[in-house]
Structures are given as structure tokens and as C-alpha cells.
Amino acid sequence: xxxxxxxxxxxxxxxxxxxxxxxxxxxxxxxxxxxxxxxxxxxxxxxxxxxxxxxxxxxxxxxxxxxxxxxxxxxxxxxxxxxxxxxxxxxxxxxxxxxxxxxxxxxxxxxxxxxxxxxxxxxxxxxxxxxxxxxxxxxxxxxxxxxxxxxxxxxxxxxxxxxxxxxxxxxxxxxxxxxxxxxxxxxxxxxxxxxxxxxxxxxxxxxxxxxxxxxxxxxxxxxxxxxxxxxxxxxxxxxxxxxxxxxxxxxxxxxxxxxxxxxxxxxxxxxxxxxxxxxxxxxxxxxxxxxxxxxxxxxxxxxxxxxxxxxxxxxxxxxxxxxxxxxxxxxxxxxxxxxxxxxxxxxxxxxxxxxxxxxxxxxxxxxxxxxxxxxxxxxxxxxxxxxxxxxxxxxxxxxxxxxxxxxxxxxxxxxxxxxxxxxxxxxxxxxxxxxxxxxxxxxxxxxxxxxxxxxxxxxxxxxxxxxxxxxxxxxxxxxxxxxxx
Length: 485
Ligand code: NAP
Hints:
Helix 1 (21-36) crosses helix 14 (412-422). This protein folds into two domains: 11-147, Rossmann fold, CATH 3.40.50; 180-242 and 274-408 and 428-435 and 456-474, 2-Layer Sandwich (Dihydrodipicolinate Reductase, domain 2). It has 16 helices and 15 strands. The protein is globular. The chain has a nine-stranded mixed sheet, with helices on both faces. Strands 3-2-1-4-5-6 form a six-stranded parallel sheet, with helices on both faces. A hairpin with a 3-residue loop joins strand 12 and strand 13 (372-380). The mean pLDDT is 93. By secondary structure, it is α/β, with parallel strands linked by helices. The structure holds NADP nicotinamide-adenine-dinucleotide phosphate. NADP nicotinamide-adenine-dinucleotide phosphate binds at residues 16-23, 50-52, 93-96, 119-122, 124, 147-149.
């Protein structure tokens, strides 16, 4: 099986923050890999913009190092680096100043797709948008890509939407959440809406509960100061986990297009119940030595910011009323692992006297590290004798089933950047969606802020979070899945 690669139209992509960490580790390598795959035209141009002094030649060296460190794979060696570097140029621009904008304007072509990637601190999103508009650099067809975080609460998200909205139309704004670019996330939609098997069962009558876990093995590393002002709720739940929840819970859109998919996601967010304080557990990791713990690593010994959060969430609509969604995310957990688990109800009656209890089927959609889908089924234990039953997984690891394709499988940034060039917003968040998500998260954070004396639960590095998070499910007679690789 070979994948048909359809090249995108010729484009000029300006990366504001082209010298930064994200550009170096993700955006530039993603573009290089798309060139290797034959999807990025060799005539396309990438213009990096930042304040540092670089000549084109010096910046191309920066790009070469980025590719050599972060883009190589079996399918994409270094043969095309020279060709790729010819597409690269650098413009010195201070987003808050006057320098460089004319040079940028003169560099751009009018007859190709124009996209502007805002890979800079959020406080610069507004000024860059305004400069592009007021200096008549970006036209009606241009696209802007806005990185996360999109606001830190409803008010700031509304303000940002408002500023961007005065400069660009909604169909020009691509709010990126790289989780939506993951292969399995899209496969979740294929699984649900491309097979007749699951959809009739995908509701409160047949599903006992749903678990969504995004576990990280790393801590705050060098980002302690930034993270401490954010916490797991803002950093992961409001965006990534909310998106996974929406795609799992939404009604079938009438078409797989941006408007319909995003309308359905928005309806889910609007149907989310407020969360009761008893249904939220916050945690902070502690190490064997003080220096390993969150307090030391965040640089704030009094910090009351959560590096772990677990919640039980309800959705008030016909499909999900009464089916809890358990969400959890945290740093310094046992393994890096993200998955969505649909736990179906137990069979209503057992006809097998030897079987202790018949367990419900479990459908697991693994996002990382090893993308794939697994369904546990009950079968007869092989061999003569009594009718003993056992549960076995029907496992479809993409790495095994589609070995040749997996090697070339685009990562989330590759897919999403190509979607920007194609003008396809299906996998990007709409302004009202982001605001609705903040509207649900804000009261939870306000509740914590009002109860500063309620201390966050400590949890050991390398575990599965605070014991109270386990209790969140135990008290309902349920159990979290193991955080395993
Ligand atoms: P970073 O390493 O600090 O890079 C910031 C970039 O902005 C640099 O290229 C910097 O270059 C440029 N810059 C700073 N002030 C500027 C100004 N006044 N005018 C023009 N350029 C300016 O940050 P990053 O990690 O790449 O993150 C960029 C954005 O992506 C942030 O919004 C971040 O939240 C988001 N993000 C990052 C990651 C990640 O893995 N890094 C993941 C998800 C989201 P000069 O200093 O040369 O101007």
C-alpha cells in the first residue's frame, strides 16, 4: 500500500518566531519532511522573522542544524537539505517596532498562498496581526496560524479573538492544537463515523464510562516559571483534553468539514455540567529529594499550582446523560501515554456458570506513544473442559498493520501546516469553541483561587498521581487504566 501524496499549492509561509524553540524543533523539520514526501513544492518559500541578527546564509545554517537534529528518518534523509535551504530566507522584524515590515512586504509574492505562523509569545499575537493588516501586508486570502495558549481565561481569549477579528476574518484564523493533527485523533472520527458497528452503542445505554488520560513522564523542566502561572487545567485540560472529549462525545456531523465538525464540538462543550469540588483532584509531584519536586522546579516554594488534575465530568444531553467522563493529566507520571478508553457496560446476564463475572468490552484509542486502537473481547479460554472465559485484546497497532505507511506518517505539525496551506480548518479550533472551553474552565479555576488554603495533594514521581485520584473512580466502583507504555 502506498500513500498518494497530493502536493499543495505554491506558498509563502512567514514564521514569526522563526529562531525560537518551536520553529526549530517542530515547524521547520515538519516542512522539510513534507518536502521529502513530495507535498511541499520546491518553489515554496519560508521566511523566518524575529529580532535577532541573521543573514540569510547564517539562518540557513540554523535551519540545517534543526533538520539534522529533528527531521531525519529512514524515509527522509538529508539529501534534500540543499533544496530545502534554497526556500529559506530571514527578515529581521521586531513585532513591536517599525523595522523590517517593508522588507517583508517586498519579499512576498502576490500570486501564491500566503500564510503567517505566529510562533511567538501570546502577547505578540495582537501586534503582529495589526501590523500585517495596517501595513497592508496580508490580504483577504492570507491565513494566520496562532499557537497555544489562546488566552489564559475567557476574558483574555475574548480580547484576543476581538483583536484578531478586527484584522482577519474567522476563515483566515487557524488556532492550532497539535493534538488534533494526530493520526489517531482523526482515526477516532473514522472509527466512529466510517463504521456502522460502534455508533449504535456509542451512548449512555451501552457505555459505562469513558476515561481520557494524557500522562507525561517529564516534569516542568526548564519551563517552571511559565508553567507555574498556568497549571495542568489551563495547559492541558482547556485545550488538548477538551478537544479529545469533544471528538469522543460529539454527534455525527452531517459532513466532514470545518463548519459541521466544529458546530458539533461546540455543542458538547456547551452541554458540559459544572464540576463539583468533590469531583476534582489536584496534585503536585514530589521527589525523593526536594530539588526534584515541583516546588523546587517551578521556582516557587509556595506554589499552589497543579501539575496533575483528575476530574469527573458529566454531559447533559440525550446521548450521554448519566455516563461519566473521567479525565486526568499530569507531569512526572509513570510513563508518557495518551489514550481514550471507552468502557462498555457488562453483559446483562451470564449464561456461563463457570464464569465469575462477564466484563464489558473496552475500546482503547491510543494516541501516544504507539498510536493504535485496541478492543478487548471475551472469548473462551482454549482447551477442553469447562466453559472458562477470558478477555483478549483485538489489537490494531498502526505500526504493525500499516508498517510501510507508519514510517512516512506525517506528524501533527506536518499535517496541520499542510491543512493551513490548503485552507482546511477542520482540525483547528474556532473562536467560539475556545471561548466556550474557557467559559467552562474559568469557574473551576476561580473556585481554586477562592480556596487558596485547600492544599494540593502531593504525589510521587513515577507513579499514577495522588491516591485521591484513584479514589475518584473507586468510590464509583470503577478503576483507572494502568499508566503503562
Ligand atoms: P521561544 O523559544 O521563546 O521563541 C520565541 C520567538 O519569538 C523567538 O524566535 C524570538 O526571537 C521571537 N521574538 C521574541 N520577541 C519578539 C519580538 N518582539 N518581535 C519578533 N520576534 C520576537 O518560544 P517557543 O517555545 O518557540 O514558543 C513560541 C510559541 O509557541 C509560544 O506561544 C508558545 O506558547 C507556543 N508553543 C510552543 C511549544 C514548544 O514546544 N516550544 C509548544 C506549544 C506551543 P528573537 O529573540 O530573535 O526576536
